[in-house]
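## tool: complex_structure
## caller: assistant
## args:
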Amino acid sequence: MNDLASRIASLSPEARAILESRLQKETVETQQGEPAIAASQEFDVVILGGGLAGLTLARQLKRARPNTRILVIEKSRHPAPEAAFKVGESTVEIGAHYFGVVLGLKQHLEREQLPKLGLRYFFGFGDNNDIVRRVELGPSSFPTQPSYQLDRGRLENAIAQENIELRIEFWDDSEVRQVSLESDRKNVVVSRNGLQLTVGARWLVDATGRVGIVKRQLKLAKQVGHDANAAWFRIADRIAVDDWSNDPEWKARVPSGKRYLSTVHLMGPGYWVWLIPLASGATSVGIVADPKIHPFSEFNRFELAVDWLKRHEPQCAREVIDRRDRLMDFRILKHFAHGCDRVFSRDRWCLTGEAGVFTDAFYSPGSDFIGMGNSFITDLIVRDFEGESIDARLEYFNRLFLILFEAYIEIFEEKYPIMANGQVMTVKVIWDTTVYWGITTLLFFRNKLCDLEFMSSIEKDVQKFIHLHSRMQKFFCEWNEAKAAEVSSGFVDPLGIRFFSELNGQLSADSNDAELRTRISRNVRILEVLAIEIFRNATRLLDLPLSNDEINPYAIGLKPERWQEDGLFSTTGHSGVDATLIEGVEKLWFPRGGARERTAAVLETAP
Ligand SMILES: Cc1cc2nc3c(=O)[nH]c(=O)nc-3n(C[C@H](O)[C@H](O)[C@H](O)COP(=O)(O)OP(=O)(O)OC[C@H]3O[C@@H](n4cnc5c(N)ncnc54)[C@H](O)[C@@H]3O)c2cc1C
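## result:
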């Protein structure tokens, strides 16, 4: 570091702000109108982009290593607007735990944001004019683990403010113009207050979202097999699905009458529509669709989106039309899923948030990936500053993060045609969430994803769950192709399924490493047994002849001609079905053709 740079870097933020404004006053525009170049400044970590990923990483790092000098450079001017700002408003357990516990933002979440009544799905039935006729999957009451609906502007403003109080340097209204990654010291040219500043740091993290400065510069973008488009808008009013019917039986399913606090998914063939309430009083509405089934040109402008809703989701369309005068914005995004060859580098740059990868908004995993990615980055940077050699950890984290990303992509790839199938999707949601709570979330809650020793001790179980998960994702496609029959009027409260609610509850239970290992093994066993149960019921519903032989869950598929060859009946290592592991699973099966009696039956057995 040169002398001037180190003197500037050692100034307090206030003194630096005064110096900057003086420099600004003294700036003389060059003849070409280019801004003058100010002196360089030094940091330990420079974060490009102060959106959700960048702001939270800065906070996590500062809490982990308080003397780290961190600069966050954000293009937009703060404070950000409330409501009509960004998407990424619904959290699930990992994201909620990351914000609330890891970052210590629980007070903000509880006071300034909305509690979330889980994920709720309404599958298509008929012309979708009567919500009561649609199969509903969603909790009757709040789960043990909290999650939240986020007003993104409100959240980013709060974190930025708290970060400044933590003495994190935050430059809003400042644009990153150039990045050099080659040398030991990473250099960034920033345009700020009409000045061109150069900042240097040992570590550089790209959190510029879809702009992805580093990803573009290093040509790291990777195509993914999943393709979907989205359009969304905010309405300055509450849209409460609770008001869509007065049917007493339907209302009684959720005694609080607060279905609107869920992330509501209106599901149809090749699409889903979200309704998310925001604490500022607005509602976020989004359409996400597979372009092979719903061309983007049919809903990529507001008027078109309303027409599209009238055709596919008429009850929702009426709510929007009634509030047309309170429309706050309208945004679109084509082909939103994207991958990346590498997210963490030994050259001391990292990518976080959408600057790295993005899968799909279904199941709201964006904040989860921010939480996991930022936790890996924090671990690496802190260890590096402590003088530890981090190369092996870094390669492991990079691989693990990208494996998790691929596993998520499989959840969505070619799955949009299933979206309308109440039976298959109900089972798939329970399966996907069992994998999520039983393995990934549990490891994140116990802060084990960064514990190499622990992770290597459960390697066999991790391999098993990845293999099984992948097999089941193919199975769900086959099942849907074999039968897309409608079921009507069913209701499943997932938390009424004992094994499933226990998985949610166990997330907060304390355990030592040995107990956690046992728990992970047990959860893999739950997945094996669940896979077999799902397979047996699917073959029953499809009238496929299946003997009572034991089933190998890792060879499940719906093509009888392949069963022998794939080893479906080879049971080595799979000790049959222990039904107690998946207690309550029978609630997932709808009678063929569907029936209102099912609702009554489920209500009777609900806890
Ligand atoms: C349709 C859709 C729905 C989604 N729904 C959900 C959901 O319900 N739940 C969920 O968890 N996730 C969801 N996501 C994902 C979520 O939006 C992202 O995970 C999250 O917003 C990513 O945050 P980020 O900080 O990476 O990017 P951003 O929030 O976009 O932040 C990037 C920042 O970088 C700044 N920037 C860009 N270029 C520069 C530059 N040159 N110089 C300085 N600053 C710059 C920008 O101004 C911006 O503030 C959704 C995504 C999509 C596409």
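## assistant note: Residues 48-54, 73-76, 86-91, 95, 175-176, 207-209, 211, 230, 232, 286, 333, 336, 353-355, 361, 364, 366-367, 370 surround flavin-adenine dinucleotide (CB under 6 Å). The first strand starts at residue 41 and ends at 48. Handing back to user.
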